[in-house]
Input
Amino acid sequence: MIYLDNAASTPVHQKVIDEMIPYFKEQYGNPSSIHKFGRTANTAIQTARKRIADLIGADSKEILLTSGGTESNNTAIHGIALQNKGRHIITSSIEHDAILEPCRHLEKEGYQITYLPVDKDGLVDVDYLKSQISKDTCLITIMFANNEVGTIQPIKEIAEIAHRNKIVFHTDAVQAVGKVPINVNDLGIDLLSISSHKINGPKGVGALYIRKGVNISPLILGGGQENGLRSGTENVTSIAGFGMACKLAKENMDQNIKHFKNLTSWLVTRILSEIPMTTLNGHHQKRIPNNTHFTFLGVNGEDLIIKLDENKIAASTGSACSVRTQKASHVLGAMGFSHEQITGSLRLTVGITNTEEEIDQTVEVLKKVVQELRAVSPYKNKYNF
Ligand SMILES: Cc1ncc(COP(=O)(O)O)c(C=O)c1O
Output
């Protein structure tokens, strides 16, 4: 199989697996225990915390360990809302459901939520953002990079606007971490969500960066782990693996970015020049280097994915999470795409294990299957396929 769905999840790096094994086997202590087993487990957590912090230029004390991007986002949004500093939140219309759903939940509780529009490339309207700020705004949460089309938002500019107005700024950086260098201090980020399984770590673990001095309320109460912000015995094995994934992402960042750019630029060049009536979606420059997202006119994206799967290529129409709900992409809808453009879309996201040969094989298969699908397309006459 050729795996081109690295935005959905990534293969776990061998060094990450090696780091995790001892905590499955001999080092099974509870990190809260005083004895040697406990202390060893606790040390593993602190080592991982430091590695996670180093990847984004933070301090270890600013890292809250969670079960992944979804929990980090929920903790940021509800954790700020529970502080009762205001009842208005600004977000964008193209966020992941792990942002939109907690916002909708708060809306039902009487909060006012502003969903910023985006342009055809998926960029938020910063002037409109400024105009929406009120005395009641307690949080601005805007994703770093979009999970479907890969567009990167003007994070530093938005953080500055938030701070000028004394508003906390959160970013869902699940798709950006490891793909672009991020320093939370340079960018002025207050809260930032990370997920391990998007950077060759295990699933079900992640972190929320919380700038020193920013207060959030806990959502999970109990034994007081994680400074009382998230109770429950820590997932030591996965945390150790996540830490190693962050260490590798930092050490190999330049090389990985170069690799991603090489593969995606070759993929884009070949697809756009060899398959007619095809467009690249998302901002052409301001995008994460591992993402490509296309519309093949007259083709149904789901049919395309099935055909690709039959040809041993794993791809996606966009967000893996929305597939379950069978919703048309709210991201492409917000970017002004027609129903036909939305249904004809395909996301190909590369990772550290992909090769140029795989890209060439993928293009050859795509050329064949797009032609097959267009031959039986209801739009056949409209476009003269
Ligand atoms: C932008 C974004 N935010 C949040 C998530 C959820 O992360 P997790 O799977 O770790 O809960 C994802 C996962 O696809 C994502 O792409």
